[in-house]
Here is the input.
Amino acid sequence: MERVTVTTVPTTPSASMPRLTGGASVSVDGITVGEWTLTRAAFTDRHQHVEINTVLEGELHVTSEGDTHIVRPGQTIVVPAGSRATYAAPEYARMSYVYGPGTPGMTDVAYEEF
Here is the structure.
């Protein structure tokens, strides 16, 4: 078993993405678990691993492969590895996430505010 790695995503918004925040995440054996929020904004990216998001508060609109899904508290959405997805919160959304094993990092990143 790999050593467990605990990291903290900045909890204060960055200048380039002021309405996206995150908290501590934990990684072990290539699987990462964490939490993030999005407020009146949309974030787009592509991961080389499966991405699982469970909405804890608010409402998240996820568009991937041409389909849009509205995810509400207690609901979970799975985005397949290699897919480009847009995560939009018309007002506010707080999510937990699980990234499956795969190549770390993301590409095709975009951000916009509403």
The two ends are 43 Å apart (CA to CA). The chain is about 0% helix and 70% strand. The chain has a mean pLDDT of 86.
